[in-house]
Amino acid sequence: MNLLEKINKAKEYIYSIDNSKIDSAIILGSGLGSIVDDIDNKKVIKYKDIPGFPVSTVKGHAGELIIGDLNGKKVIAMNGRFHYYEGNTMEAVTFPVRVMKALGIEKIIVTNAAGGMNPNFEAGDLMLITDHINLIGDNPLMGKNYDELGARFPDMSEAYNRELGKLVEKCAKELDIKIQKGVYIALSGPTYETPAELRLLRRIGGDAVGMSTVPEVIVANHMSMKVIGISCITDMALADELEPLDHAKVVETANRAKVKFVSLVKEVVKQL
Ligand code: HPA
After folding, report:
1. What φ, ψ does residue 183 adopt, rounded to 5°?
2. Which residues 6+ apart lie within 8 Å of 66 measured at CB?
3. CB-based contact 66:14 (threshold 8 Å)
4. How far is the CA of 79 from the centre of ligand 1 (A)?
5. Span from the CA of 223 to the centroid of ligand 1 (angstroms)
6. With 80 as the cut, is the pLDDT of residue 31 above it?
């Protein structure tokens, strides 16, 4: 089965459970899944039941798609994403975004937990992603291009939609939530960074660092979707003051930030 047929199969399965028109999609990062509690009239679809979907293995990441109503809009939320470091192919990592587009969705909010490299940030901050640097060492568009999905050489001049970014800032202001802005650098992981790596990443223009998001954003751009990116800064990744870090700490900070994260995303969804 080729990619187009696989996408179609997954789409048909989701339509067999819910075929309502969906306004926007949200990919939830580590520790940020609690927004699904606010989704009403939920249909919960387990990844393992969707043809072609990989299965996520990280703790703190559930493995389900949720379709329902959030602040008056119909949304689909991905609770738990697929990472490259789990050994997934880039095609698997980005497959859900392909399916979302096939469901007719044009706007996607991609979120993550990230280390803060900008010294003006603090753990618990939210950051609007204005741009990214792909240092994963792979690209989901390698290999055969399906012209039906997008161009061989996709434009990335506005990978994160500027107008929607302004909307996020406006919503944050209305809610009195501080929001930082910056460039997200993606590495493959699963190791966190050494101080020497962080020094490099800061010098080349990074404000936050993580192990996700960029593959999904590349594929969304390939299909001309409009992207909003929001990082939750879960730890400060400063070369000269680096403290030992583990995943539990990341999830713990994300959990502390989730109240403002949830209010912000709900407002953005409403105004999209
Ligand atoms: N580095 C990489 N990925 C991360 C970090 C970090 O400091 N925090 C959360 N995800």
Report:
1. -95, 130
2. 36, 39, 42, 43, 44, 45, 76, 77, 79
3. no
4. 19
5. 28
6. no
Backbone φ, ψ for residue 73 (5° rounding): -120, 150
Q: Give 250-268 pLDDT, tens digit per residue.
A: 888 988 899 999 999 999 9
Please state the pTM of the whole predicted model. Answer: 0.96
Name residue 175's amino acid. L
Q: How far is the CA of 192 from the centre of ligand 1 (A)?
A: 6
Question: Which residue has the CA at smallest separation from atom 2 of ligand 1?
Answer: 210
pLDDT at 34 (0 to 100): 86
10 Å CB burial of residue 38 (0-12, 13-18, 19+) is middle
The Cα angle at residue 128 between residues 93 and 113, in degrees rounded to 5: 50
Contact 127, 252 (CB under 8 A): no
User: In the chain, what is the greatest distance between 2 CA atoms, to the nearest angstrom?
Assistant: 53
SS3 assignment, position 151:
coil
pLDDT of residue 30: 80
Instruction: Please say whether the beta carbons of 80 and 62 come within 8 A.
Output: yes
Q: Which residues pair with 111 in a beta bridge?
A: 230
DSSP state at residue 15:
H
Helix, strand, coil percentages (3-state) for the chain, rounded to 5, are: 35, 25, 40
Q: For the chain, what are the domain ranges?
A: 3-271
In this structure, the residue with its CA closest to atom 6 of ligand 1 is 115
Q: Report which secondary-structure segment, H or E, holds 102.
A: helix 90-102
CATH topology of domain 3-271: Rossmann fold (3.40.50)
